[in-house]
């Protein structure tokens, strides 16, 4: 499912216009991204949790040359599914 299909499904299930559904989805994505940038954790009970995890700097190997390289530390967004979501899938 792509973004257009998701917007159409949201509009259909909620009974609102596609334009309004697209605005709501864009606001949700923007809010999640903004809060994650601040280092906040977003927990939606029954659905899951969005959070940022930090990866330490480490040494890696360039697969083309075989030389060792330094990989910088980074922050990665992570989604952990909640129990209700897992149960609904299984």
Characterization of this structure:
By secondary structure, this protein is α+β, with helices and mostly antiparallel strands. It is about 45% helix and about 30% strand. It is elongated and about 55 Å long. The mean pLDDT is about 95.
Structural key phrases:
two-stranded antiparallel sheet, 3 helices, alpha+beta
Brief summary of the model shown:
This protein has helices spanning 3-14, 18-37, 83-89; strands at 42-44, 48-55, 58-61, 68-71, 74-81.
Helix-strand blueprint:
Layout: H1 3-14, H2 18-37, E1 42-44, E2 48-55, E3 58-61, E4 68-71, E5 74-81, H3 83-89
Antiparallel strand pairs: 1-2, 2-5, 3-4
Mean pLDDT across all residues, rounded? Answer: 95
Order of helices and strands: HHEEEEEH
Number of helices: 3
The biggest sheet, with number of strands, parallel, antiparallel or mixed sense and barrel status, is: 3 strands, antiparallel
Q: Which structural class should the secondary elements be placed in?
A: alpha+beta
Helix share bin:
40-55%
Oligomer: single chain
């Amino acid at each position: 499912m792509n973004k257009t299909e998701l917007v159409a499904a949201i509009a259909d299930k909620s009974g609102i216009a596609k334009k309004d559904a697209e605005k709501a989805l864009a606001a949700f994505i923007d809010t999640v991204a903004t809060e994650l940038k601040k280092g906040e954790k977003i927990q939606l009970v029954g659905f899951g949790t969005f959070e940022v995890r930090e990866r330490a700097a480490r040494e890696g190997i360039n697969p083309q040359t075989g030389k060792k390289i330094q990989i910088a530390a980074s922050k990665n967004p992570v989604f952990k599914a909640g129990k209700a979501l897992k149960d609904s899938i299984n």
